[in-house]
Design a protein that fits this description.
The protein is an alpha/beta fold. The chain has 6 helices and 7 strands. Strands 3-2-1-4-5-7-6 form a 7-stranded mixed sheet, with helices on both faces. The termini are far apart.
Length: 187
């Protein structure tokens, strides 16, 4: 698992042992960052089910201004910190150990990009999307990126949010959720 491009290009990231964490495949990661390539620089990123931290680290490497990584597992939190240090990106990041849903409910800051890649069978994707849209923590033009099994895309969110596009990479799907057209044209 390597950083694709940017300041940390080619750096190999450490991975968690065991099957509980499923890192995003290179093909899906390349597709994701191809879709987001012009929307990352200078942005604030939330990597909500961080695991290894690879998606948030890729955003930082590509010029994101700040990233917050959240994971409930102490070993994952430790690994994200190690990977940030390996890539020399720790000065633009905060790592939080804790439950993702509790973190969202206590959140006081706003983000431009939210990365959601919870364990597929944990049933956390839909509640996380509902929580994110209900608390409205996205800045104008913000994007929620949800990774999911290709045959189980998330339900369409309530207005003013909408599904911008769903991509399919074999058995894996990526859904981009953003504010509706009226809100996108503001500001």
């Amino acid at each position: 698992m390597r950083v694709i491009t940017g300041s940390a290009r080619g750096r190999r990231l450490k991975e968690l042992e065991g099957m509980e964490t499923r890192p995003t495949t290179d093909r899906v990661k390349e597709g994701l960052f191809s879709a987001l390539q012009f929307e990352i620089e200078g942005r604030r990123v939330l990597d909500l089910f961080a695991g290894t931290g690879q998606l948030g680290i890729e955003c930082l490497s590509r010029g994101a201004a700040w990233a917050v990584f959240v994971d409930r597992r102490p070993d994952a939190v430790k690994l994200v910190k190690e990977n940030l240090k390996l890539t020399a990106l720790q000065d633009r990041a905060r790592v939080v150990e804790g439950d993702a849903m509790a973190f969202l409910q206590s959140l006081k800051e706003r983000f431009d990009i939210v990365l959601l890649d919870p364990p597929y069978d944990a049933g956390l994707l839909e509640p996380a999307i509902r929580c994110l849209t209900a608390f409205d923590i996205l800045n104008p033009h913000g994007i929620i990126v949800a990774e999911h099994p290709a045959d189980r895309p998330p339900q369409a969110p309530e207005a003013p949010y909408r599904v911008r596009r769903t991509y399919r990479y074999g058995k894996i799907g990526l859904t981009l959720i953003c504010r509706g057209k009226d809100q996108e044209n503001e500001g």
